[in-house]
Write a structure and sequence with these properties.
The structure is a single chain. By secondary structure, this protein is an alpha+beta fold. It has one domain. It has one helix and four strands, in the order ββαββ. The strands form two sheets. A two-stranded antiparallel sheet has the order 1-2. Strands 3-4 form a two-stranded antiparallel ribbon. The longest helix has about 40 residues.
Length: about 100
Amino acid sequence: MAEANEPKKLVINNEDGTSNTYDINKMAPEAQNNYAKLELVAKELEQIRLQSGLKIEQMEVLQRHYLQEMKPFMTEETIHKQENYNFENGQPHEETSVEPQPTQN
């Protein structure tokens, strides 16, 4: 980013590897206004990137926490209950549930 006393420059990189440099102060007022908007958008985009990185980190921590809480349910002592019954219309229904057993300390 340019210092306060340095003239603002816009550098546009071309597909062929060359670049064009423009002096913002020499541009039309409309172009200067658009450049100011461009700077605001770039700052906001950077903030969004930082915030989303933090949110991803928070979600990963929660994910690990819930996986740890699930460990008691994933032991050999877990009981699988299965219920079979028929609806009034004769349609068979099967239901399976998992119940954790208390761990022995």
